[in-house]
Every structure is written in C-alpha cells, then in structure tokens.
Fold this sequence. Notes:
CATH superfamily of the largest domain: HAD superfamily/HAD-like
Number of helices: 9
Number of strands: 15
CATH architecture of the largest domain: 3-Layer(aba) Sandwich
CATH topology of the largest domain: Rossmann fold
Distance between the termini: 19 Å
Shape: globular
Radius of gyration: 18 Å
CATH class of the largest domain: Alpha Beta
Strand content: 15-25%
Helix content: 25-40%
Mean pLDDT: 94
Oligomer: single chain
Order of helices and strands: EHEHEEEHEEEHEHEEHEHEHEHE
Amino acid sequence: MKIKLIAIDLDGTLLTEDKQITQATAETLREAMDVAGVRVVLASARPPRTVLGFYRQLRLDTPAICCNGALVYMPATGQILIHRPIPTRLAVRAVQRARQLYPKIIISAEIIDRWYTTRFSRAHHDSPDTGARPDVVGPVESWLNRPATKLLLIDKQERLSDVGLALREELADELTIAQTEENLLQVIHRLASKGRCLRSVAAQLGIDRSEVMAAGDNANDVGMLRWARLGVAMGNASPKAMEAADYVTDTNDADGLAAAVRRAVLDGQQPGRPLHE
C-alpha cells in the first residue's frame, strides 16, 4: 500500500503544546513530500489566518481544511473551494437558546476569515493568533445578520455543558455542537466535517481512499480518522479519537507525527501500535 496523501490536524497533532512544528516533524514531512511524492493537507478547527503560517512553513500547495470542515480554500490564491456556513436563522436560534440559559455568555463567530464577538478579553479568548484582536466587537444583533462559518460560545465549562445539551436537544438535526476546549463550545453546519472535506479534497487531487493517511487527536478528527485507509491517533489523543483510529503513535510533544509518517510512508511499516487487534 502506497500513501499518497496525509491529512493532519494542527493543535495536539502537528503542533507541540507550545504551538510549534518541531524540526524533526518538518524534516520528515518534507522528505515524505520530496522523496515519496506525498501530498500533505492541513485539517484544523482554526480559521484560515491562523493556519496560513504553518502552511507556508511546510511549503504546501494543497487545499487547506479550516473551521472543522466548514471552509476549504487555496491559500495561494484565496479561492474558496467549499463553504458550508450556518444559516442565519439557525445561528440566531442557537444564540437565543444559549442566552436563555446564561445571558452573559460570550458569543463569537468566524465569517469566512473575519472574527466577530460580543466581548473580548484575553481571559476569555485563547486565540492561537498571537496578539490578534477581533475584526468587530459589538452586540451580536449588529453582526449576526449573515451565515456564520463557525459559531463559538464562550463561558465556564459547566455552563457550556448545559448549553451544549440544550442545543443538541433542539438543533442536533441541523447543527454539530462540540465542546472542544473547557471554555469553548463550537457550532458548525451539520454537513461540515473534516471527514467530508478530506473525501472531497482527495477526489480533487485524484487520490483514492486506500492511499490516504490521517492523523489527529480529538473528537473533531473522528470523521477523517475513520474515512482514511490509515487513521493514526496521537499518544495524547482523546478516547473518541483513539476509538476511531487504527493505530496510535507517540504524543505531539514527542514527535509522534514524525514517527508515524516515517514508519508508514518512508519505511513501509505500520504507523504505530494497532488499536483494534
């Protein structure tokens, strides 16, 4: 089996805990691309602006999957290939329901690559975009008047658990709701997912599913881990990611991705320890 495409999550997978690509990982991916002809696709919950630096660092030329699969674009040209935003009426319903429970909950949204929020402070926003500030800060009614690529609800963990439960009860057929961090609840279109986008990108590149490897660490990676011929969970992965993957490698801080790529692509071996023997 020859791997021709590797889909890679960013935070917790490609990146260390201090948000860096190690030299070993960068060199291994470069060798896989230059020597083995592998295409590398980044697949992240992040918006385009916070994916771009890593994309350029690796000198990629493939589409980038952003916002958990709600947006796919070509960084070189800015061309949008796929966009599955939340219809405005649904976004408004989700906000209204969240505010019924907790009126002071912070509402944020990504609309393509612009960041909108009702309130901003570093204590509440853990943005991977160092030093970045929102494009718009103001009442949600003033900016949530168009489809949102991704909706973000920010509050204490226990409050978000309540909000997530309420939204799933009312809108699970139309939206995907996931608490990916303690203080962050992410909401996207129900058809938006990394797995769906990976399938589309692979087809666009003329690569069969049997030639695809995916690596990730969290629940939002489950779709692509299951769809790929080889699904690799990081050693630091969540239980849901572990369950969906075929193999487990080392952690993101121990060059686990580099190890998996070297084994599977450059050495022709299995990419880690089998999870479901």
